[in-house]
Specification:
Helix content is 80%, strand content 1%. It has 305 residues and is an all-alpha fold. The protein has one domain (2-304): A middle domain of Talin 1, CATH 1.20.1420. The chain has a two-stranded antiparallel ribbon. The chain is globular and about 45 Å long.
Length: 305
């Protein structure tokens, strides 16, 4: 029964996130914001809502391992799975924005800061506050670097109404928050029933489920030859996961982090983040890079199980 509840809950998370993503995109396009900034802010934050809801709920219920593992696992899935799939599916990837010069560092800052904060074994409320400040800095950076590029003309022509948008946003939030509470309870029960640690459940089962919105949105953007939005959503989502998700979760309740026990998983997240920087530096936006990223994901999964 817990497995059924978990699947239905993840469906609610994804369905709710989809409402939020679509309406957020309409708001951004209505105010002439570039595709990359749309991806890195509104869509990234929207697709990070499942991670945020699950981790905050886990923190509230005292399941710190699931809260932290969800963020580490989502980082691995977002880069290795989502970006790998984008590279394999997209027919042509040639971002207008210089991702290496402007944005690649933001894929490394949060995880380095996370490791430094977790050396003492706990993410305190003060650490959470610093994470939120980092998110504010990232948003200010994006606003300053916004450069309006090609915009979807069909969406621009679509009639924009605040009433419908706000209603769908509210529905989306209800689905996301409600789904998160049921998902965390079901995941914990599954972990105990099968003797699997909550860290592994959070790292793979929950992280994969909460990464599905990023996967869906990024593949859709890639197929529409909008690489800027796809990659922006991935980078922005990873920043949001460490800053907003861990920041808010540790404000609710300090999170214990065992870097020694979970060394491989944390280093894996760091490695794929470095790979993202390497890819943007060398403009390796091709199928070969996609295969390498998916291979790294396979190795991580095989090692953990």
């Amino acid at each position: 029964m817990d497995i059924v509840i978990f699947i239905v809950s993840m469906g609610a998370l994804i369905y709710g996130a989809d409402f939020i993503i679509q309406e957020s995109e309409k708001i951004a396009l209505h105010f002439d914001i570039s595709p990359f900034v749309i991806g890195a802010t509104l869509i990234a934050l929207g697709t990070s809502l499942p991670e945020m809801a699950v981790s905050m709920s886990a923190s509230y219920h005292g399941n710190g391992d699931i809260a932290v593992a969800n963020v580490i696992g989502s980082t691995i899935f977002n880069i290795a799975l989502v970006l790998g799939a984008v590279f394999l599916i997209a027919t042509k990837i040639s971002p207008d924005r210089d991702l290496f010069a402007k944005d690649s560092a933001w894929s490394l800052f949060p995880i380095f800061i996370f490791i430094l904060m977790a050396i003492d074994g706990v993410l305190s409320r003060f650490d959470g506050f610093l994470f939120l400040l980092l998110m504010v800095a990232y948003l200010l950076f994006l606003i300053q670097s916004n450069q309006v590029e090609e915009i979807d003309e069909e969406l621009i022509k679509e009639k924009f109404g605040w009433g419908k948008t706000i209603l769908l946003l509210v529905v989306g939030f209800v689905f996301v928050i409600g789904g998160a509470n049921f998902a965390i309870d079901a995941a914990s029960n599954i972990a105990r029933e099968f003797g699997v640690s909550e860290w592994i459940i959070g790292l793979f089962l929950v992280a994969f489920g909460t990464s599905l919105p990023e996967l869906t949105v990024s593949i859709k953007a890639a197929r529409a030859n909008n690489a800027d939005m796809a990659i922006g959503a991935i980078i922005g989502s990873n920043v949001a996961n460490f800053t907003m998700v861990l920041g808010l979760s540790s404000l609710i309740h300090p999170l214990n982090v065992d870097l020694t026990t979970n060394f491989f998983d944390v280093i894996s997240a760091l490695i794929v983040s470095v790979m993202l920087v390497f890819i943007t530096a060398n403009k390796m936006y091709n199928k070969s890079a996609g295969i390498v990223l998916l291979s790294v994901l396979a190795l991580v999964v095989a090692h953990s199980f």
